[in-house]
Amino acid sequence: MRSTLTNLLKRRDLLAALVSAELRASSAGMRLGSLWWVLDPILMMLVYWLVLDVLLGRGREAYQPFPVFLLVGLVVFKHVASGIERSITVLRTKEALIKAAAFPTMVLPVAAVLTGLVHFLFGLVIVVVVSLFWRGEQHSGSYAALLQLVPLVAFQTMLVVGLAMAISAIGVVVQDLRAVTTHVMRVAFWLSPCLYGLDLVREVAEARLGDAAGPVLATYLALNPIAVLNTAYREAIFYGQGVPLWAWGTLAAQAGVCLLAGNAIYQHHDRRIIKFL
Amino acid sequence: MTAASSSSSEPPGADPPNSPGDTVLDARGLGVWYRAGHQKQTVRSLLFNRKPAESSRPKLKWALRDVDLRCGSGQTLGIVGHNGAGKSTLCLAIAGILEPDEGTVDVRGRVCPLLGLGTGFNKDLTGRENIRTYAAFLGIKRRDLDALMPGIIEFSELGDAIDQPIRGYSSGMRARLGFSVATAVEPDVLILDEVLAVGDAPFRAKCRARLKEMMQRSRLIVIVSHSVAFLRSTCTHAVWLDQGRVRTQGEASRVLDDYQAWVVSKSPAGEAMEFEDAEDA
Prior knowledge:
Structural class of chain B: alpha/beta
Strand content of chain B: 15-25%
Strand order of the largest sheet of chain B: 5-6-7-3-8-9
Largest interface: A-B, 31 and 35 residues
Largest sheet of chain B: 6 strands, mixed
Number of helices of chain A: 12
Oligomer: heterodimer
Distance between the termini of chain B: 24 Å
Distance between the termini of chain A: 25 Å
């Protein structure tokens, strides 16, 4: 891990140049620039709100205003999902450069995540602004809770960087990883509480499986890092509350494990990557 | 350059005029393998078929094996050999792009590999923006690039097109841009792998002039070319690779004579090499 950080610090110019180039390229020829990145979750938010709340009347009182509740979950999920999707092909798309210049190739997945982070921060600002103007009765009224966004974003970045390093290296060796990941992310979307809260899962599980099974199921769901992230972001933005300690602990452990494991997997494949390209 | 794994003995005259302290490139027992005819894994094979049958396992093919090279300051090393002999792999190993699977490569100083010029340019970005990214890949610091930028743009002869997206550039324009960035910094070790056919005739002449200047200033130049005439006119030393192993190495004229004689004996087409124009290399 230490050598990874040293390599990244040594090539910070390259990292900055890559992020800058990706940001420019992604907004080249688009008048709306980064706004395109948040348009997708905003459109999805409108669709889910219309279907779940307006048509089916499933928006719970605790989740009102439901569009803001949805938007928080969708923006967080999009950052994680896009980081994973980009990392699958990031090494293959830069194959020619990998074979023409000597540089630590791990900057490529890291730069892809950092580029996504810039878009995510833009989206997060929009979410926070919307939540300030459209506040529900459940909101505590305290905005100090927004300060928790700083460590939350840090943990989320660690988590996505770890996943991206592992997936980018495996993506070079395993040819159908993209197809499989698309399905996995679709399942992850519905299992992650983007459209609902963990409290609803616990309630439904208790009602159907008994008092003992509910908390157990909720605990298993908390193993999904996106579920923990969504819960934490909603506490900070939507409810204006302190993120529960269990969420901090779980998130810190998941981020740490992902980063260390992702780094180990990348290091294991690193010298073979050029041979598989 | 000294021979260690060479199949022919090194004549006394071929020893570099440098003391051991001047060694720029030191490769010992260098070996690099690839998987011959390997198929990429699938998620299914990864999960359910972790140990493939012996017969279906990819076989290792040594692209380089037991290569020993030592080059001193002031040398120009030509690498010759048939396609698949390991020339480009050797360049990648010297450039630090490919890690050896066996042995070591020690290169002292800044290495500039001119391999695949302008590859990886982003078509949506302008020429100027691509210079910044490409230079960062080559390890040129941002503050150094600011000073180098005017010279790079001038040498590329792209004029106002430098601020246009390179989507509209011809392949020649992209190669010119790549060459201009890659040669903007003076390296200690310059590696050229068949990159001299860049742009139109006047620009090729300009490239050759710049390379000549760089050759005079670099401590070591490594050139891969199929043109024996060009190598003969440029190199002080040469190494002949055959199936990943050093067949012979030493003084350029002797190695190239041996190689040329071998090529002529193998194929009548080889005779044409005698008449190649070094300028077309």
